[in-house]
Amino acid sequence: MKKILFAAPLLALALASCNPSDIEGGSEWSDVSADQLQVSATPVQVDGKNSNQVHVVCSSPTNVYWQADQLIENTTNTVSSDATIYFTKLGQNTVKCLTTNTGGTPAEKDLTVQVDTITYLTDELKTRLCVGQTGAPDHFGRTFDKSLIKVEQDKDANGKLGNKLNIVSNVNPVLCTFHWGSTTLDKNIGSLTTYSIDTPQELTVDIMDAAGNTKTYDLGSYTAKTYTEAPAEIQLITGCDPKDASTADNTKTWVLSEGNNWGNGASTDAAGSWWTTDVTGQGGSYGEMTFSWKNGTLTTTIDDESNTRGDKSGTGTFKLDFSTRNANTNVICNLITSGAGNIVFPYLINENYKECHNFEITKVTDTDLYIRAQHTTPSGEGTFWHFVVKK
Fold this sequence. Notes:
By secondary structure, the protein is mainly beta. It has helices spanning about 10-15, 20-25, 125-130, 230-240, and strands spanning about 5, 40-45, 50-60, 65-70, 75-80, 80-85, 90-100, 110-115, 150-155, 160-170, 175-180, 185, 190-195, 200-210, 215-220, 250-255, 260-265, 275, 285-290, 295-300, 315-320, 335-340, 360-365, 370-375, 380-390. The chain is elongated, with a radius of gyration of 31 Å. About 30% of the residues are buried.
């Protein structure tokens, strides 16, 4: 008898399109009430223990399917009168036997089985546990020792700690989900990358064992001092690739685009879409801003410092925070400025031209840079700037 496995959301469609006589039996079959169902569920023995594979049989003259709730997967359903199903959880599990030929609400009979060992691993369990990889577990069980987790932090050529943590060894036979800052790894082996520099961040792991028990452990604090895994946008914005020492002294200069370079739009837009204008019509002046990644400085040069809004030339500092990246709201990173250097005409629209120091980069290419600022009083409105690279 061929077994048919399908996820729970597809069950109704599968049963509705299936002729019962194609599954098992024929016209001699009949509706059977739950208390009259003759069914059995017997765990397959492996080394004298109940494994997580279960032999299920229905000897009543009716069509049935078997339902099994899984630990991390969707509920599985098997259509057959005689089949081998599985569970992914140790301990007592419930096999649900449901009839399929009533045309109405299925009759259901529940059978309890005891699972003592996980000998059959699903593809999802293998992927999460990283079975087959060096330093990974080869089974799914209950034991956990955090000292068995080996963590290595990337370093640059000068030995400076980088922004990537590598879980290089973790033979604990439990499901692990690691957290470092705002980044997550849901496999036992792998890497986490943060874009927060000079900020101590705790590394923690949430575990789930084969019995379904969960617990969180603290694995210590790690601080990234430099970008060893650098977003491509750093070079686009500043001209410097932090991973390439030959570009360390590179800088990049941006100027306001000609014409409509400042305006407003929805707070999640990538560019001003409601109204845009030229800053010179708002009491501002054209100018340029130069980023130096090596020095962490932003130097602003204003063409006309006598402008009404008081925009002045100067040098300050800047930071790019990539931990805020969010494609749904068009955020590549935050640009935080301080000191005498700032973006050209750094004023919020409809907020009495309040000077801003916290911006969001929404789009950047080799030639164009789009910047947005959220308003101090959230209103669904953002202020937008459009810069182009200085030629």
